[in-house]
Amino acid sequence: MEFELIEGQRGPHPITRDPSNLSFCYEWTPNGRKKNYRRFACKACRAKRNKGEDIRVPELKAHLNQDIWLSTVPHCPHSCSPKLYDEL
Ligand SMILES: [Zn+2]
């Protein structure tokens, strides 16, 4: 699935829609790369963990060179609440 990008302070970054309500979405931020794919972490969950919460941060895999998700289901559930797209 191709990235849906939004503009941010540090340039464009991808979002994914909440499957249960497509008006809501999660924002993703680069989280390093492996040999065969790039990793993205949920921005809001990572912010919570950076503040000291003991949570797992959902990750998604993306194509190395193209803005295409290799998976759209994170490896663990979100601890954040999805944001309304219109308020991003
Ligand atoms: Zn999250």
Descriptive overview:
- This protein has one helix at 43-50; strands at residues 4-6, 13-18, 21-33, 38-42, 59-62, 83-84.
- The chain is mainly beta and 88 residues long.
- Strands 1, 2, 3, 4, 5 and 6 form a 6-stranded antiparallel sheet that branches.
- Strand 3 and strand 4 (38-42) form a beta hairpin.
- Bound molecules: zinc ion.
Topology:
Layout: E1 4-6, E2 13-18, E3 21-33, E4 38-42, H1 43-50, E5 59-62, E6 83-84
Antiparallel strand pairs: 1-2, 2-3, 3-4, 3-6, 4-5
Zinc ion binds at residues 26, 42, 44-45, 58, 78, 80.
What is the radius of gyration computed over CA atoms, rounded to a whole number of angstroms?
A: 12 Å
**Unreliable stretches:** none
The helix content, as a percent range, equals under 10%
Overall shape: it is globular
Element pattern in H and E: EEEEHEE
Largest sheet: 6 strands, antiparallel
| Average pLDDT taken over every residue | 95
Q: What is the straight-line distance between the termini?
A: 21 Å
How many strands?
6
Our estimate of the beta-strand percent is 35-45%
Briefly say what this structure is.
With 88 residues, the protein is mainly beta. The chain is built from one helix and six strands.
Question: What are the main properties of this structure?
Answer:
binds zinc ion, 9% helix, 88 residues, mainly beta, 1 helix
